Amino acid sequence: MGYLKNKIITILLFLAPLVSYGQWSYTFTDPCTLNQQTIQMGSSDEIALNYFGNVQTFTQPDFTDGTFDAWMTLVTQANSANPCQGVTQVITNNANAIIVQNTITVITNIMSVLGGDMLPQALSASGVPVAEAIDNANKKKKKKKKKKNKSDEQSSSSGSESSSSGSESGGSDNKNNENSSSGTSSGQSNGSGSSETSGGQGNTGGSGTSTGGAETATEEESKEGALTMSLANSVSNAIDGGDADNKNRGSLIASGDIVVIDNQDNSNGRQVKVVGSITHANTKQNRIKGALFTYTTVTNDFSLTFYKSWINPRRTFNLVGANTTMTDFNQNHLNTTTALETFKFGKKKFTGMIGTNFTIGKLGKRELQNLSAVSGVHRNFRVSPKITTSALILGVYSPFTQYYEGKWWDPGLLIVPFSSWDIQITKTFKYNISFTGVWQSGGNALNYQVLTGGKIRF
Questions:
Q1: What is the pTM of this model?
Q2: φ and ψ of 299, to 5 deg
Q3: Exposed / middle / buried, residue 65 (Cβ in 10 Å: 0-12, 13-18, 19+)
Q4: Helical spans, DSSP H, in 171-273
Q5: Longest alpha-carbon distance in the chain
Q6: What span, in angstroms and rounded, lies between the C-alpha atoms of 314 and 111?
Q7: For 33-75, how does the pLDDT look when each residue is reduced to its tens digit (9 = 90+)?
Q8: Looking at the DSSP assignment, which residues form a beta bridge with residue 251?
Q9: Where are the strands (E) in 52-201, listed by range?
Q10: Contact 23, 42 (CB under 8 A)
Q11: For residue 453, which phi and psi values (nearest 5 degrees)?
Q12: What is the rounded radius of gyration, in angstroms, for the C-alpha atoms of the chain?
């Protein structure tokens, strides 16, 4: 035991100089963000710094004798006409990338609760589209009519045979046979039986058989009427929200996803983002609201978004409003308001989107304001009864960004393609996998993302 203790002490004494050797650091204030930056290095190491595109190598004495501070001041003065241009572009692109990814999540959540589209179709109470429900009802009515006609033919044939047998056994004349036939016809048409009794047993038998056929027809007509009324109630519930006894209280979907982000600029490396959301639609499916949160590792970013959509009575437009608060729990805090309008075009096969974002907040000790425009197009595809896919592409353009002493900067256009695959596992659970990324207009990829998770309908 004593030997082991002495061994540990010896190792610690040996490592102590190495630990102190690697703990040298230098802290300075970044002129762009006004954030505190810390440089760590050894006493004999050199470190290369990139500032405003100017690269310079420094050793430890350069930080203590003022060489580093003088270099930063010189570079800042030389770039005073366009200060922090590169920093502003990166900040704007990162903010827009987060905003558009949240917008895509909001869009897909609304599509999920509406059955895969941004604009709902009228649904029956069972959740079947009205056109399909009417088609199914017509098919059932045709089948029941065929059964009814076949039953009537059998009843008529049985009645005629019974009437003929009764006439022969009762010795009735041709006139009674005609009365019997008349009674049979009357029984088939209104189910009341024959009004004449002079036909004897044969007439009674014919009337009884015909009455049975009439009861069968009445029952079938009643079922058809009930089916038609049920369909009418379904359409009414979908359009008007149903009456007070309607148990359908709308749709509620909860989802959870894990996103792997591969940043191409190597500033943050590979990140993992956790996304959770809940979305609710009323029975009319013209008001949808929800909330989602995200957390991203490495940068320690957290965002909380509340959203709502308003669908007009004709179901031709869907206005989506959202508000997102983002923070890294340190010095960066942003709030973004989004307004997005969606509409159908191309024989209602495609959904177009156009909107705007306005961001305000602080990055470090400096204020940031960013205005961006968003536009895109979406379409659904059904691969199989249990697999659906959708393709979405959005473009984000920021004409104005105010940062660092009121200067304005145009970072160009961002392109965000998105492909989502839903696999139905049960009636209430779907597994989802999606692929997306962010590209600059010049063709450079900022990041690639793979999302996987599930959706549960309550």
A1: 0.63
A2: -80, -10
A3: exposed
A4: 174-190, 200-240
A5: 138
A6: 18
A7: 777 777 777 666 778 777 766 788 888 888 888 888 888 888 7
A8: 281
A9: 54-59
A10: no
A11: 180, -165
A12: 38
